[in-house]
Amino acid sequence: MSRIWPFRQIGLKVLSVALALLLWLVVSGEETVERGLRVPLELLQVPASLEQTGEAPATVDVRVRGASGALSRVAAGDVVAVLDLHSASVGRRLFPLTPDQVRAPFGVEVLQVMPSAVAMTFEASTSRKLPVVPAVDGKPAPGYVVGAMTADPPSAEVIGPEGAVNRAAEVLAGPVSVAGARDRVEDTVILGLLDPSLRLKTIRSARVTVQIVPAPLERMLRGRPVHLRGVAAALQAEAEPAMVAVSLRGSREALARVGGDEIVAYIDLEGIGAGQYSLTVHVEGARDVGVMRIDPPVVQVRMTSAKR
Questions:
Q1: Percentage with pLDDT > 90 across the chain
Q2: H, E, C per residue of the chain
Q3: Could you say which of 196, 214, 224, 299 has the lowest number of CB atoms within 10 Å?
Q4: Given pLDDT bands bounded at 50, 70 and 90, which one contains residue 255?
């Protein structure tokens, strides 16, 4: 059995006692003060089956006490409030926040936390596949239009609060530039969601293909008389100008089938009395083709008493 020598390394022991005494004298000589701090709030152990809705406070205010030197050395992040959410459930919940839930350095005492409780709302977490909707930017070359647009993959899985997931209708794809295009355009674009409470499960991008096709042809019919309909028996009407030009758009076959007499420009004067009016010209008879322009679109109509 070895013997213990109390005076072994006596110099080191004396030095340790002296340093401890010096430290005690320094600390005991400092003034004890209180200070208010704004500190970050950390959320821990949120159940995987839940989604937080709304915004939780990012910071809280605390009241601390300690030696003036110790408090002066407290840096950002040294004091942190921690909220354990392992017991959270669906609905609006109130979680107490006490000084015991604040981490602080040695020598710093937490006296108070404000607010003393944090309200948070949770919904069940769910997921759903939504279609990816492509978009374009710019216009194709003259004489061409945007045709069919497809995305690969055509859908993406979205995760978030149940209510927000059920309201969502689509996943947005970044626009593909078709400026000046005369042929098919392909590009890889970023996917995103309008609702910040939602997120994509895995897919973050998609390959979008935009078909650029020749625009339908146009045909101009000039000198179409403006028919004045619904003129009261005691009135007579006169249009200025009396003729307009009608521009039609459609496929070559559809435009070829349109006879000049089928396209009728007219103004309905039913219930209009004597006077001078600026009235819109309408067109009928344009089957399988679209009316693009009427020139001029508005004419002056003069309504006067009929001569006997």
A1: 60
A2: CCCCCCCCCHHHHHHHHHHHHHHHHHHHCCCEEEEEEEEEEEEECCCCCEEEECCCCCEEEEEEEEEHHHHHCCCCCCCEEEEECCCCCCEEEEEECCHHHEECCCCEEEEEEECCEEEEEEEEEEEEEEEEECCEECCCCCCEEEEEEEEECCEEEEEEEHHHHHHCCCEEECCEECCCCCCCEEEEEEEECCCCCCEECCCCEEEEEEEEEECCEEEEEEEEEEEEECCCCCEEEEEECCEEEEEEEECHHHHHHCCHHHCEEEEECCCCCCEEEEEECEEECCCCCEEEEEECCEEEEEEEECCC
A3: 196
A4: confident
**Domain boundary residue among 156, 190, 214?**
214
Q: Are 170 and 195 in contact (CB under 8 A)?
A: no
CATH number of residue 222's parent domain: 2.170.120.30
Q: Identify whether 133 is part of a domain.
A: yes
Write out the two tokens for 68.
């003036």
Q: Are residues 198 and 222 in the same domain?
A: no
- Tell me which of 4 and 273 has the higher pLDDT: 273
Closest alpha carbon to 156 in 208, 205, 224, 114: 205
**How do residues 170-195 score in pLDDT, each as one tens digit?**
999 999 999 989 899 999 999 999 99
Domain assignment present for 8 = no
pLDDT tens, residue by residue, 105-157: 988 999 999 999 999 999 999 999 999 999 999 988 876 888 899 999 999 99
Residues 157 and 177 in one domain: yes
The confidence score (pLDDT) of residue 14 equals 67
